[in-house]
Write a structure and sequence with these properties.
The protein is α/β, with parallel strands linked by helices. The protein is 50% helix and 16% strand. Strand 10, helix 14 and strand 11 form a beta-alpha-beta unit. Helix 21 packs across helix 24. The structure holds nicotinamide-adenine-dinucleotide.
Length: 558
């Protein structure tokens, strides 16, 4: 997308039967813009229905009318324009349209299009079925025409798959895409809005950007405004992080004209509790917070989980923003919308899925993160590579020294890539119902056992995950899934990043008992995520306990 293009209009393209006209009308109503269907304009100009233009004058004449209608539409502003399914194929039309608006393509499977056009009561064949489809085998023709046009549809700014969506839902998606791609700057789109975005998290409830950039904290005010968030912000942070960045962040927001309140809690996992959630509710009530006000989580994963939980529940949900400052929070906790607090009976037992409006990660803040916390965070970065991205693993291995020295460009690249992997998984399985998120649990089964057996006092989470990954790779080898050389390669990478690959002074049955207990409390089966290769996993429902004990024994330091 070129810089400086104006989003004066929204243009809806896509094959017949994808709901272009109805969705465009709906969007126009939502935005209070005008609506125009170029087919209606053609009929008006020609003084006869489209089928008759095709019959009497041929397709070439129809395309001339179409081109004229598009030219006329593009002279206007704040217009939602539905164009014919073949219009975008003409490069002159595409050029004009792309200069004058955001092009959104509506997609549907050929079979769905066929059903909609030929069998749904709402589409009568006389009015909806295009002349190009009046052939003996319309489904085949749809497939062929659609496949010919696909390269042109692919040039759109945004694509929405409509198969399972109602017209209202499609319109909602269009408005969301429009907001995301054109907000701020008086509708001026520029590369500046995109260049900091590492990825988008796309869930049913929300599409939001994850910004990653060294020094990006300075742009927090700008990004909040781009997200169309208005209202007073409440920064929630812990004492450590607030003392380093609180005043700075407050100043950045205030200089963008955003009012700021602050609430600071003690650091540490004990703060992630109902007790502190209630303290924050009290503060928000006292400050008369309203539903459009914004919570900003400034801190590590503990703050993200607690502040997000408050945002999800106070006034039945307020907008919120994640500003992660620990490595774990940047690549893991801030992406995916899992929020929650601990219960005396278990960690993270009370919570919700509640997506933020944006995530802004500034790796520069990692300069003050205690070394051990930083090292622990690398475990999650490495994990993302091990489960899904061999290239990331290679990048990490080739740049260990630079990454250890926190070289800005390398650090930002590693974090952006790792957060993107998390975002992709979460986008496919927002609420952990489809099993696709399970892959993120690589190393976590034993990590949970280790953490619980040591009452969360001995290992940082990433340290436990590193040991868990070593165990999972050993198990994978034991079950003939993974060559021992690959398991050893994994262990070497973990060691290069300063992570532990063994442990001592622990009763092994304490670990397995804690794993069983965790399973019971969470009413979950253990799904073992095992490795087949770097970047490739397999899920096993049942791994014999003697195998687990055997690998743990192998990993116990004398
Ligand atoms: N929601 C999720 O999907 C998810 C995923 C992973 C972990 N988590 C949660 O995240 C928490 C662990 O995250 P964490 O390791 O970030 O813990 P944390 O938030 O407790 O931070 C660790 C320590 O680092 C300090 N700190 C953070 N950023 C700093 C900075 N830039 N400079 C100096 N000090 C800084 C904190 O004050 C704290 O003392 C746990 O509660 C875990 O359950 C949630």
């Amino acid at each position: 997308m070129e810089s400086g293009r104006r989003v004066s209009n929204i243009i809806i393209t896509g094959f017949s039967g994808t709901g272009k006209s109805l969705a465009a009308k709906n969007v126009a109503r939502r935005l209070n813009w005008d609506f125009l269907d170029t087919d209606d304009e053609i009929v008006r100009q020609a003084g006869k229905p489209i089928a008759e233009i095709f019959r009497d004058d041929g397709e070439t004449r129809f395309r001339e009318f179409e081109r004229r209608a598009i030219k006329k539409a593009c002279q206007q502003k704040q217009l939602v324009i539905a164009i014919g399914g073949g219009a975008i194929v003409d490069p002159r039309n595409y050029e004009l349209l792309s200069e004058n608006g955001l092009i959104i393509c509506l997609e549907a499977k050929p079979e769905v299009i066929y059903e909609r056009l030929f069998h749904e009561a709402s589409c009568s064949p006389e009015t909806e079925v295009r002349p190009l489809l009046t052939v003996e085998n319309p489904l085949e023709r749809i497939k062929q025409l659609k496949s010919n046009r696909q390269p042109y549809y692919a040039k759109s700014d945004w694509t929405i798959h409509t198969d399972c969506l109602s017209i209202g839902e499609v319109a909602e998606e269009i408005v969301r895409a429009w907001k995301l791609l054109s907000r701020g700057d008086n509708c001026q789109r520029s590369n500046a809005s995109y260049k900091d975005i590492a990825c988008l998290v796309k869930t049913a409830a929300q599409i939001y950007p994850v910004y990653v950039g060294y020094g990006l904290l300075d742009k927090l005010g700008e990004k909040v405004m781009k997200a169309d968030l208005t209202g007073t912000t409440t920064i929630i942070s812990d004492e450590n992080v607030f003392s380093l960045y609180g005043i700075k962040v407050k100043g950045i927001l205030e200089s963008s004209g955003i009012p700021v309140n602050t609430f600071v809690v003690p650091p540490g996992e004990e703060t992630k509790s109902m007790n502190y959630a209630v303290k924050i509710y009290d503060f928000l009530i006292e400050h008369r917070a309203e539903r459009d006000d914004i919570i900003i989580a400034l801190g590590g994963g503990m703050i993200g989980d607690l502040a997000g939980f408050v945002a999800a529940t106070f006034l039945r949900g307020m907008p919120w923003i994640q500003v992660p400052t620990s490595l774990i929070a940047m690549v893991d906790a801030s992406v995916g919308g899992k929020v929650g607090i601990n219960h005396p009976k278990g960690k993270n037992l009370v919570g919700a899925f509640y997506q933020p409006s944006l995530v802004l990660a500034d790796p520069q803040t990692l300069r003050t993160l205690p070394r051990r916390e930083l090292t622990s965070g690398w475990a999650e970065v490495i994990k993302h590579g091990l489960i899904l991205d061999e290239e990331l693993v290679q990048f990490l291995e080739s740049n260990v020294d630079g990454l250890m020295k926190l070289e800005p460009e390398l650090l930002a690249q590693a974090i952006a890539r790792s957060a993107t992997i998390k975002a992709q998984v979460v986008s496919q399985d927002e609420k952990e119902r489809e099993g696709k998120r399970t892959v993120l649990n690589y190393g976590h089964t034993i990590a949970h056992g280790l953490e619980a057996a040591t009452r969360y006092r001995r290992f940082l989470h990433g340290e436990a995950v590193a040991i868990g990954m070593v165990a999972a790779a050993k198990l994978s080898h034991r079950l003939d899934l993974l060559p021992s050389a690959t398991a050893e390669h994994q262990d070497a990478i973990l060691q290069k990043f300063g992570l532990p690959i063994e442990f001592s002074d622990l009763d092994l049955t304490d670990i397995t008992t804690a794993m069983e207990l965790d399973k019971k409390v969470k009413e979950k089966e253990i799904h073992w995520v095992l490795l087949e290769d770097i970047g490739r996993t397999v899920i096993h429902g049942n791994v014999p306990q003697q195998d687990v004990l055997a690998v743990l024994r192998e990993m116990t330091k004398a």
